[in-house]
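Feature request, filed as a ticket because there's no other form

It would be nice if the structure record came with a short human-readable summary line next to the tokens. Right now we just get the raw output. Example of a typical job, pasted below so the devs can see what we mean:
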Amino acid sequence: MLYNSIQKTFKKHSIFILMNKYRKNEVVLHLIRIEFFRTKSLKYFYCMQFEFSNVSFWEQKWLTSDLDFIVVGAGIVGLSTAFHLKKTHPKAKILVLDKGVLPFTASSKNAGFACFGSPSEIMDDLSNTPEMEVWKTVEMRWKGLQALKNWLGEKEIDLQTLGSWDLMENKTDTEEIRSKLKELNLALKSITGEANVYAEDKEASKRFGFENLDSAFKNKLEGQLDTSLLIQTAIKRAQDSGITILRGVEMKSYSSNTNHVILETNYGELKSSNLVICTNGFTPEIDEKTVIRPARAQVLITKEMPDLKTLGTFHIDSGYYYFRNVGYRLLIGGGRNLDFKKEETTELFITQEIQSAIEEKLKRIILPKTTFEIEHRWAGIMGIGNKKEPIIKRVDSRVCIGVRMGGMGVAIGTLVGQRLAEMCE
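Raw output as currently delivered:
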């Protein structure tokens, strides 16, 4: 009853008025915030009641007239696309739009893994995907990480190549990977130029304080980075090159003709010579062949633990669980495999079932003898499909899309942006 009442009142009054009226009632304030973010719109702010048709001459000159490219999505892919378009078209007027105050997909919500594939994940992929396709995807991840380093810089995103460990919970999985290790390493050498990328590490449990594991396999080339620095640096690179980013603007639909693309947004109409869609798991249906499904990834991070031994990045259960240190905190996510269908959602909420499963991994395997406290929990939305390779294609003469990162946006996002920019030539 209370929530229904707030919904009705919310349509008539500014959020400022409502929050001032109920400033002493924390329950009502919380419900007001939920309703505001549920609408995914800023139209209830008095200061934002405008449409693009009502802008001034100066705003029109700066923002909306004579646009060469509109890029929808201000995450890694969108910013990389815009940056590389500007690099090849220095005089082009480029506008990047994002419907969220922050990037609405996973670009500022991911776990910060600089990875291209654990042994168990690749083995799992090889069991249900043509071999050539699997290694093509791994190669793209590897090349994408090199592109990311070249674009933003290792120091700027705090990239640390500490290695990663694929943790085996049972002897059968250990023996299966052990039997294929030479074969996997030969394939990876042809991609990375490095010999023996994977190696069994039988002392990992003892060194890191893990329990209930059979063995582990180390990947010496993987690492971790600071997601907040990554997205901040990408935004700065784009803005420094003369690209404008507008937030709170949602693409509703688009149409294209021989002259331009017309984009319908929550603030009215925009026109551009070209449109590039980089909305990943939030991408609307383009055509029957472009299969994109949202996939929620849930994460939590502990408070600092001065005696934390877990330095590096780690995978369990074919990569469906993953964890790393963030200084002396431990970040862990995953559990989507408990209910794939339920987690095909764009709702940025956490669930008790998956959060409990994540905590169980912490208590039983990762921190069995350490008392820990949870500091924060959140969720991000990935884009997946029937294949793990991304979709990079031209829809028509004026519209291109780069979506379906398959949970590997950090690794491949920069490269997808580069290829999209080339496609828009």
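Something like this underneath would help us a lot:
Residues 131-152 form the longest helix (22 residues).
The chain has a mean pLDDT of 89.
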